[in-house]
Amino acid sequence: MTIRCVLFDLDGTLLDTSYDFAYALNHTCRHYGQDPLHYQDIRKTVSQGGLAMTQLAFPGLEGEELESKRQFFLDVYFKHIDMHTRLFPGLEAGLAEIAERNIPWGIVTNKPTWLTEKLLANISFPSEPASIICGDTLSVRKPHPEPLLLAAQQCGVTADQCIYLGDHPRDIEAGINAGMQTGAAMFGYLPEAASETAWPADYFFETPIEITHFIQETL
Questions:
Q1: Confidence class for position 199, pLDDT limits 50, 70, 90
Q2: What is the pLDDT of residue 193?
Q3: Is domain 5-16+85-218 in CATH 3.40.50.720, yes or no?
Q4: Which residues are catalytic?
Q5: Residues 196, 199: Cα–Cα separation, whole Å
Q6: Residue 92 pLDDT > 70, yes or no?
Q7: Which of 23, 51, 94, 119 is most buried, with most CB under 10 Å away?
Q8: Which CATH number fits domain 18-79: 2.60.120, 1.10.150, 1.10.10, 1.10.730?
């Protein structure tokens, strides 16, 4: 199948947001008298979302007590959302190639709109994404196919002309459900046990520069 559009997951695939998440979560830990966590432990949890990171920091909590700490954590993250977040090194040339060839591209993330808009406001790309779908854009989120199908529609292509790149099995499942080709970003926020045998992706990228080479050679 011909690929005419590239769709990215956001955290752990397009942008390295892990340092700002780690800062916010450890700030939350200190605020509540909890020992800070190791960066690598936080990094492996980022793609599972804010609730999972809060549970990592405060195991055993649930209900309103957990939710209040999650909200505190997200508020800190919002205020410091782009201190260290950058495009993954190696993707710059790939996005420049997309811009030069006028190829549509987009972002499909489960990150809520209020965080996504704040983050992307200070990130510059060679060309603007034709679609940005967030976790609350629709009533369903990945791995449901609808967010990806909406992104394809906004990019002016059919689903089978897209490749969706992500660093979580949920991303690959969503791409398959939408009838897209899929690529696993194995450099992302994966647990230690992650391996290619557990991912039914069409392509595997061990480093961001491999995505750039793929764009340059395949699209």
A1: confident
A2: 63
A3: no
A4: 9, 11
A5: 5
A6: yes
A7: 94
A8: 1.10.150
